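so im writing up the methods section and need the Serine/threonine protein phosphatase record in one place, dumping it here so i stop losing it
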Amino acid sequence: MRKDNSEFKTAFLSEAGTFINNKDYFAFIELDDIACWVVAHGLDSDREVESAEMAVRSILGNIMNNPTMSRMKIKKYVQEAHKLLQEESHRVRLKASLALIVTNYTKMIWAVAGNAKLYHFRNGRLNFKSKDQSLAQLMADEEEIPESQIEEHEERHNLLNYLGKPYDFKPIVSKKYPLTDGDVMVLSTPGLWEGVNSVEMLDTIQEAKEPEEVVDTLEDVLLSKQKPIVNNYTAATIFVNKTYKEDPKKKIRIIKRIIVALVIFALIGGGAIVYQVRAAAKKAESVASMIEQEKNGDVFVQDGDYPKALKEYSDARNAAVRIKDLVHMKLIGKKYRITQLIVDGDTAFKDGDYTKALSKYEKAQKEVQGRKDFNAKELDEKVNKSKSLIQISNWMKEGDIKFEKQDYAGAKSTYEKARKAATAASFTSGEEKIKAKLDETEEKMSSIEKEKRQLDGEKLEKKGDKSYASQDFKKAIESYATAQEVYQEIGMLEKVLSMERKITKAEEKLNPVPKEGAVPEADSGAQPNGSVASGNTEQAAEKGGK
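--- predicted struct ---
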């Protein structure tokens, strides 16, 4: 285990400077036999996609899946990161500078694309620094300007090569370089190296005991110059305190193994060739299958059949995994992810979970910005409809709360608003539910109104009874008649008949029918003792009535 028998210490910082966004990115991994440090600086203006982070993650992902100290493979990993930026350039062209170190804890390989740099210090001096791919570097190589002027030359940002370049991308990849105990390496983006020169770096390293001290001091030196504009800056320092010591006899063993392998190959070479041919044929078949499945997925997406598209993309991605095609793994993987979000959104929408559906649709909406292989307009419609249905659901809940609090008028108003929105959104099932709630609310309101009117009728009836008792028959009739109208209005027919009887009785009292042979009340005043006669007449009438 090389890592356990060596000691590499890392510290880094990455800041936005005087800008809001930091387009720099640094990350590293330390595996058992391989370690890799990558720093990148985004050169584009895209605010949605971080090109530096995308490039770094692509390279580290390849290193993790297939650790290597092969120059050819490392160059391939850088080229795949470059191709990934090209494929993801939807709104603007994604561009980045990059520098990396790969080591087996004994030797290292470094690579550069653009103007990120590696500084290597050994025995208290600058051992070397990587060349960048700017016009200023080219001018220095042709001895038009001194090497020391590159960091300040106006053409230092005029790059001849970078990740995301439209054509002819050629990164610099070094040969294997032996490491020694005590080596110090600094990876830097332009924001740092154009403000801190190699002499200042060397002074900082000589005074520091830990890599954290180096990066902190480098930042202090940069900021102490008080420039009005400070670009994004990143510095990563690696202290090689102890390298892995290889067994000197290992080379002899390796040579012996190679000789044995050559002999075996000579003996069974024919079989090996047949195997390779079959393997190549199988791989070609997998590639063809992957491409066909991806195309099928694209067709289903255009047709709006996302479940079928999801299956095709899943199969295509699995084929890419089998043939270890990392570029297609990422590209198809993104199509799969977008399709999965849409399928999840559709499922949640169908289940009535519109909040979850909206969340899925909005994530997919963000992913498809600038892409032409997905129907952005259809996705916008899904987002808008989800928002409408969420609003309708909220109004329904609001109406339910008002209903529970017996604010039936408020509930009715809210339900009507929800029903109107449901009709506009063609939300048929929701419209039916809202109609049922409206019917229930109106029934409650009608019941309450009936009870209220019944109370009004009963009050009028009691008022009539009181007037009748005080022999004010005229007012009694008026109260009974009004009460009768109220009872008639709310359909209380028995009460209507009851009022009719009371009205008739009061009218009889108001306009009594004289008894046959009785002296009219108008002539009683002409008789002597008229008051007595009048009283007798009333008594007689009363008895007659009884």
